[in-house]
Specification:
Distance between the termini: 132 Å
Oligomer: single chain
Helix content: 55-70%
Number of helices: 50
Number of strands: 0
Strand content: under 5%
Length: about 950
Amino acid sequence: MAAKDKPNKLAFLSMPAPASYVAGLGRGASGFTTRSDIGPAREGPSAEAIAEAQARRGEEPDIDPDQFQDPDNEYGLFAGTTYEADDEEADRIYELVDKNMDARRRARREARENEELAKHRAERPKIQQQFADLKRGLAVVTDEEWENIPEVGNLTRKKRKRDERSFVVSDSVIVGDRARTEYETSLDSRQQATGGFETPAENGTITNFAEMSQARDKILSLKLDQVSGTATSTGLQTSIDPKGYLTSLDSVVLKTDAEIGDIKRARMLFDSLVKSNPKHSPGWIAAARLEEHAGRMVAARKMIKQGCEQCPKSEDVWLEAARLHNNDDAKVILANAVQRVGQSVKIWLAAADLEHDVKAKKRVLRKALEHIPNSVRLWKETVNLESSAVDARILLSRAVEVIPQSVELWLALARLETPDKAKAVLNKARKAVPTSHEIWIAAGRLLEQEAYATEKPAEQRDKELAAVDKTIEAGVRELRRHQVLLTREQWLKEAERCESEGAIRTCEAIIKATIAMDVEEEDRFDTWTGDAEAAEAKGNIGAARAILAYALRVFPDRKSLWRKAADLEKAHGTKESLNAILERAVHHCPQAEVLWLMWAKEKWMAGDVPAAREVLERAFVANSESEQIWLAAVKLEAENGERDVARELLVRARTVADTERIWMKSAVFERQQGQLSTALETLATAIKKYPKFAKLYMIQGQIHQQQGDLAAARASYAAGIKACPKDVNLWILASRLEEADGKSIKARALLDKARLANPGSDVLWAEAVGVEERSGGAAKAKTVLARGLQECPSSGLLWSMTIWAEPRPTRKARSADALRKAGNDPWVLCSVARLLWAERKIEKARHWFERAVAANENPSDTWGDIWAWWLKFERQHGTAEQQEEVIKKAIAAEPRYGPTWQPIAKDLANTRKSTQEILELVANALH
């Protein structure tokens, strides 16, 4: 029973074999199978059966990755669909669309391919194409010419293989070489007969060297006579000066073997060129110049003669032939040339240049005009030879009849005529050439010249000058009507050209008529401002003035425009023009304080103090609460000795304007007048009103320090620091007070606190370094300086101090580091200039001083110390003119800052001194 329940392990033997079963295949024991082994053919499992078996085994069905690649192979979704008539029609439509698209692209594709092929063939033609014309020319080559073609040498520059064959040396050579080193120890019979000291001639005659020398001289003279013959009618024979012949031999340039080889190869190439294409004129010219370069002038002339015969219509060949001959022969050559090429202007001009007599030149040029009457160049050369204005006018009248389209001839004729006739000439020119803007400009210049020709009333002159504007405007309109459209830039160039030639009013008229062309309304201000700046940079002041005048008519309320116009007049105009522009400016912009102040300052600088007062009174009416105008009035009165008036003005200003700056100026004024108690009272009141204004505390502390009350000064600085902890100057003044009191430790502590309150301030670090240096701690100063550079790596002030803290040999390297780190800082540039000064590199030092003072965009921000260093340098190495130039530039810049400048400028003893005087004092104080 138990045996029946056990499974039969051999049951598989009675089961049918699976499909495609091969016995022994699994253990590799299968051999070959035959039809009898596999039985008759039977159909394999279907796709559904395979998919069902794979699903039973948990396998994914195999997907052909390429079944979706070919659209013509319909697998997957449409594999089992029926191909119907609609499908056939759709396939036919798509095929038709593809053909049409391909036909449309084909034209462009073929055109592009042909273009690329043509470009490729043009860039890299076949050798067959390069020599096609030469091969066609071989058809006319005769047998004699073919035989005369030279053999081609080895031009590949490749080393040929040497012949390594060896030959047997003959016995005579060996015997001769052996006898060469032997010595004769016996005399022959002839030597014994004469004693061994004389060698008689063979026939007993004696050579006469004097006769040989005479014969040589005779032969040389015969050769000179042969080559010194007169010129022949062909123009190809030369004449040589016998006296200068031997001297000219010294100028012969000896050529190397390589150059001679190059000339020989080039000669062969040119010879082949002129023989294969004898009608090619550049080949003859090149061949002749080659012979000229080789020093074979006779061969060069023969070559160019053949070129003239082969290319009689080429003007270049004739001109080259004339160049290669002397003056007389060249005349003959050009006479033959004009018979062949009578329409060549170059040949006629060359023939005229060969003539040294003016009459002969005129004769040649007039003959040329008979052949070429429409050549402007010939007419101009003919007119230039005339010394009489009447004859020149007659010639130009004929010229404009023959060539009415030449603007140059019309303008030349107008310049020679009287003003009335010139107008008629220009009217005729305008009708003959209606598209020329030069004629309209010439008309405007003629009117301007006539207006300034004689003394006239101002009204009449203005009326005539107004006609210039109308003429240019009419010209612009007419040119537009004839479709002549010049750009703004072209018109501006014409205006600048008129200004450079002295026609200022015509320049202004052109700008007035064309400056608004092609400019958008919103871009007008920027465009015109840029045009004015560009014109001023080029030195065209009249054009810049005209552009600004037009811009001011369009934008009369733009303060910046009036400022630019005033600066332009100040730099390049007169005092009258500057006053006029400033008067117009304050009329249109009465609220612009800077314009009022400029006008008042100009009046003051001109010495007209009443006029300056009048200007400031008018400014008070327009700007009653203006702080700057009040202070300007106070400065004007104080500088002119009216102290009571200035004090009264300050009182009124404190009432009307009541600003912190006015209170400060009031205290400074009282301090300058010696009223220290009044100044302290004013400061006390001002501090109550404006407790955050640091300068009030500074002045108060300085007054206390001046009185010797250090405790009060210390209290003032402490109060200021408490109220304004971010003001660096307050901290520095407090530190210097402690240092003056002998308390360097406290000064250091104050500066440490200041750096905590104002991190990144290079001025505080510089002051800390100064404290250490003044206390005698050079090593400590360098340590503080290094710490400062770590916190402020781009500070020019600290880098400058670092340069001078280094020993002399390492200063140059340190300055290079400073330039890399600080860039265009004025202190670094000044230090570099001083280093170059120490090395006696004067011009370089001057250049670096110029860079240093120009480093700041605002001139008033430049350091006065730098100007003083430059003046000190020029005093030592410059001329008086260079020193005056530096002083002039410094006065214009009006410097206000500097470690040495400010203490000297604010010293009460220097209160009313000018900028030049302060500059001199600072230069003397620097060391």
